[in-house]
């Protein structure tokens, strides 16, 4: 049994990496992306949270969430998102009544300050380029990059080369 300890900060902001089971490319398909989006939408209705940034790649996703004041229960949100998306993506359960869509765990990081937030947001938006899936962040459909540009957080040309502040960051 693992002794992994999670950090719970009520009203906190968190960076997450969530990986598919066996790195299967479930999210290379628009139908599965729609299932994931629907799962996020449904869970946000019952367990609100703000998404500051997100990118969905074929076999994993990264995102930054801000939880409501007084609330630190991101595990319940991930459990419900994974459950809802899995039910639509892979209707077949194994002997343990699990669907083989997601790895069991995920990686989280409590964002410490604005510089940490910015560094992880840059990591999210540059990730499709890092993996050779897009020439620049603006070219990747399944990213919040265009929304971030509209909010004034980035110039549209940002990410033509790897940002130096994320060169040593590995959240895969």
List strands and helices in order, with pairings.
Elements: E1 13-19, H1 30-46, E2 50-57, E3 60-66, H2 74-89, E4 107-110, H3 114-130, H4 145-150
Antiparallel strand pairs: 1-3, 1-4, 2-3
Question: Which features characterize this protein?
Answer:
172 residues; alpha+beta; Alpha-Beta Plaits; four-stranded antiparallel beta sheet; globular
How is this structure best described in words?
The chain is of the alpha+beta class and 172 residues long. The chain contains four helices and four strands, in the order E-H-E-E-H-E-H-H. The chain has helices at 30-46, 74-89, 114-130, 145-150; strands at residues 13-19, 50-57, 60-66, 107-110. Helix 1 packs antiparallel against helix 2. It starts with 12 loop residues before the first strand and ends in a 22-residue tail after the last helix. The mean pLDDT is 92.
Summarize it:
With 172 residues, the chain is of the alpha+beta class. The chain is 33% helix and 15% strand. It has one domain (13-164): Alpha-Beta Plaits (2-Layer Sandwich).
DSSP strand tally = 4
Radius of gyration: 16 Å
SSE ordering: EHEEHEHH
User: How are strands sequenced across the largest beta sheet?
Assistant: 2-3-1-4
Helix content: 25-40%
Portion in beta strands: 15-25%
Q: Report the CATH architecture.
A: 2-Layer Sandwich
Number of helices: 4
Please identify which CATH superfamily we are dealing with.
Transposase IS200-like
Main β-sheet description: 4 strands, antiparallel
Give the termini separation.
Answer: 22 Å
Helix and strand content put the structural class at alpha+beta
Text of the CATH class: Alpha Beta
Summed up, the domain count is: 1
CATH topology: Alpha-Beta Plaits
Shape: globular
- Average predicted confidence as pLDDT: 92
């Amino acid at each position: 049994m693992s002794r992994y300890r999670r950090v719970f900060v009520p009203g906190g902001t968190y960076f997450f990496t969530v990986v598919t089971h066996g790195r299967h490319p479930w999210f290379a398909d628009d139908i599965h992306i729609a299932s994931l989006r629907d799962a996020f939408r449904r869970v946000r209705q019952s367990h609100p949270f703000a998404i500051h940034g997100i990118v969905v790649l074929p076999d994993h996703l990264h995102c930054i969430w801000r939880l409501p004041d007084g609330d630190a229960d991101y595990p319940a949100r991930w459990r419900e998102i994974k459950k809802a998306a899995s039910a639509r993506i892979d209707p077949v359960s194994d002997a343990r009544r699990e669907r083989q869509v997601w790895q069991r765990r995920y990686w989280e990081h409590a964002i410490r300050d604005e510089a940490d937030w910015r560094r992880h947001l840059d990591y999210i938006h540059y990730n499709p380029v890092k993996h050779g899936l897009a020439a620049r962040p603006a070219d990747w459909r399944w990213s919040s990059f265009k929304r971030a540009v509209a909010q004034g957080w980035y110039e549209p040309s940002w990410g033509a080369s790897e940002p130096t502040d994320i060169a040593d960051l590995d959240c895969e």
